[in-house]
Amino acid sequence: MTTAVLKNRLLNLTGRAFKEEDYGAPNFTAFVRRYPDLIALDESSTPPKVVLIGDASSAVVSGTAITGRRIRPDLWTAVVDYQSGDSYHWNGAEVLVSDGVDNDTGDLPKIPTVSREEMREWRERFATNFISGLQEGDEKVTRVRRWDSDFLPTKELPAEARATWNDELKQHVISRLVDWFREKSLTPPIDLVQQRPQAHRVVSSETAQLRELILRCVRAMNEEELRSLKLPPAAVLRAVGHGAPGL
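and the corresponding structure tokens:
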């Protein structure tokens, strides 16, 4: 989207109260530059364009950020599919697959698929770290070592290790992708990291009560009070990125 579209969304979300000056920025472009972990700014076009990349960036910085999320399926496959022999290319919007026979990918940049050796290194490192805190002879130690040495699927890991390995693998993949996009001077897609659909979102009772109290206060505010309301920029950008109804 353009910077003008993003600013208009922020104005709509804040009841027209948003002002760059409130955040120490002389103009909207300067405001955007203050949040490089949330927004990618492309000034090569007129008007400048922005891409909300907060989910991807924060996932790289914090291992816990990737929990409960998934990497976009076509990009995930492009990185981890070392067995098929296919190559994967990025056309700016989606992944194109080439089997080396009917190659219609031209000069499109090739996504770096992990090799079997690299995957083995990731697995070995995980196995070593996981069993380091366990007693020798523990059944979990045996299962993790067998999973590693025999290149077994994730389901063969002890239950306690599966989620940890899945998160670690996602962290490897997202880091690889973000580094590649940066090296190629490409803008990563906004949905690089996606929230998994959940039937019920679990929140603490204290958080739920606080949110309900804030909502009740907002409903009771008059126009002047609403205009004076200050919202954290990161929260507003997350709301925009998650596609609030009507935007």
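(Above: one complete record from the training split.) The chain is about 45% helix and 10% strand.
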